[in-house]
Each structure stands twice: as structure tokens, then as C-alpha cells.
Amino acid sequence: MGRTQYYVAASADGYIADWENHLDWLLQYGFEAYQDHYDAFVADVGALAMGASTYEFVLEQGDWAYGDRPVRVFTHRDLPRIEGANLEFVEGPVARHAGALLASAGGRNLWVVGGGRLAAQFADAGLLDELWLTCMPIVLGGGHPVLPTSAARDLRLQRTTHFEGGAVELRYALEGPDRQVWPE
Fold first, then answer.
1. pLDDT reading at 183 higher than 80
2. Which of 100, 62, 55 is nearest to 78 (CA)?
3. Rounded CA gap, 160 and 134, in Å?
4. C-alpha angle 117/13/45, rounded to 5°?
């Protein structure tokens, strides 16, 4: 059975976007140093869960990078569809969609893409297995936090990866008594 993974980059002070949802601070680092690592991560991903703000960011970029993998976008709004993308728009608690999300991953991993609020919902429901956090060598001083959960979470460090330019990926397993087994 696959794992639910939140794979994200953040500033050294724990923000994934600035107050205006801009990522210019992150994009300045480029992708070349991280590409092989990212490709290996994505090769194990069977499906994605995405928040509406992340989906809108992807729309603005104009490049659908997720192929034909099933993507569920959590939203309360009507959003335009990307032609050729395997999309489903859903709303409500993540636990309500957990079984369908896992089934759509086909035994591979589920990637919680982008927003910290969506990842926090998975964590608060006990349905987030891993946090893959790439800490970038910059301090933003404020913005949108990595994982704004409603309760403290214990993390167990599994692996670190150092990248050229000063970034460090920290791969954690989430632990605690509230960890759930995915519903069938």
C-alpha cells in the first residue's frame, strides 16, 4: 500500500509562500539541482490531492506537469478544467475522500501537492504518512506556513539530502497516537 506524502519546499523560517502567495523567492533557485531527485519522487506517485490555490497557481503557469495521474482538487468554488488532465473537483473533509484517493493511486503513493492547509487537514485526520521538506536558504519573515496543524506533531527523521546551493531536504515520518490506517 502506498504512503501519503507532503512533498514541499519552504523557506528556512518555515513558509511555503509569501503573504501574497508568491513563489518568486523559491523560483530564483531554479530546478536543475533538484530535477533527478524530484523525478525519482514522482516516479512513485500514483495520484495527487491538491488545494484550490495550488491548482490556480498551476493554471497560471500554463503547464500541466502531472500527466494522466488522477488529481483530486479540494475546492468550494467552480474552477476551470485543464484539457486532458485526469481531474476531479471535490469538497468536504479529506477523510471523506480517503478511500477513493488511495484507490486512485493504484497501490502507489499519494502526493499532497502545494498548500499547507490541505496537508494539515490530512495530518489532523491522521492520514499523512510523510513530510518531505526541502528547506531553502532564505528567510521570508512571514507568509503561509508549511503545516498549520491544529495540534503538535512528532516527526521521525528518515533521511536528509543536501543540495548544491545550500538547500537541504528533510524526510520525516509523522508519528503519534492519532495516526490512522487508511479506510478501505
1. no
2. 55
3. 9
4. 50
Supply the pLDDT for residue 133. 96
d(CA 98, CA 115): 17
Please report the pLDDT score of residue 115 as a whole number: 83
Name 42's Cβ contacts closer than 8 Å, sequence gap at least 6.
Answer: 111
41 and 132 Cβ atoms separated by less than 8 Å: yes
Residue that has been written with the C-alpha cell 478544467 in this structure: 81
| Whole-Å CA distances, 61 to 54, 65, 102 | 11, 10, 27
Q: How far apart (Å, rounded) are the C-alpha atoms in residues 96 and 125?
A: 10
Calpha distance 119→51 (Å, rounded): 9
Cell of 39: 523525478
Whole-prediction pTM: 0.90
Report the distance separating Cα 74 and Cα 55, nearest Å.
9
Distance CA 144, CA 42 (A): 24
Residue 135 pairs in a beta bridge with: 10, 168
Helical spans, DSSP H, in the chain: 24-27, 35-43, 52-61, 94-104, 116-124
